[in-house]
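> example.struct
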């Protein structure tokens, strides 16, 4: 295994200091927008009642917790995936495709 740092990275404190001294900061640059807060996202949501069998509700809670999501977020994602499958001509981001494919269970 190669433990050498990648070329172009500082290899000593002096090189790191030289690199940092060469950086230029532009306080006039526009700050990119922050992602919406949870409250902002929730304000755009509507409440919908849904009846589920108790064992399904528990499975949803467990899967959501394993992915650090709320059950509502997980259900929304699953519904969005289902609705997307109804539109085969619609393009999806590659990152979404990779995420979904990597979550598939291995076959025997």
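> example.seq
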């Amino acid at each position: 295994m190669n433990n050498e740092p990648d070329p172009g990275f500082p290899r000593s404190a002096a090189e790191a200091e030289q690199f940092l001294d060469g950086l230029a900061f532009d306080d006039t640059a526009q700050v990119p927008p922050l992602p919406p807060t949870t409250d902002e996202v929730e304000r755009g949501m509507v409440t919908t009642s849904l009846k589920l069998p108790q064992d399904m509700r528990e499975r949803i809670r467990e899967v959501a917790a394993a992915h650090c999501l709320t059950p509502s977020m997980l259900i929304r994602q699953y519904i969005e995936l289902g609705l997307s499958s109804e539109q085969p001509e619609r393009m999806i981001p590659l990152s979404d495709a990779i995420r979904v494919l990597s979550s598939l269970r291995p076959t025997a």
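> remarks
Helices lie at 13-21, 38-43, 54-66, 71-85, 94-102.
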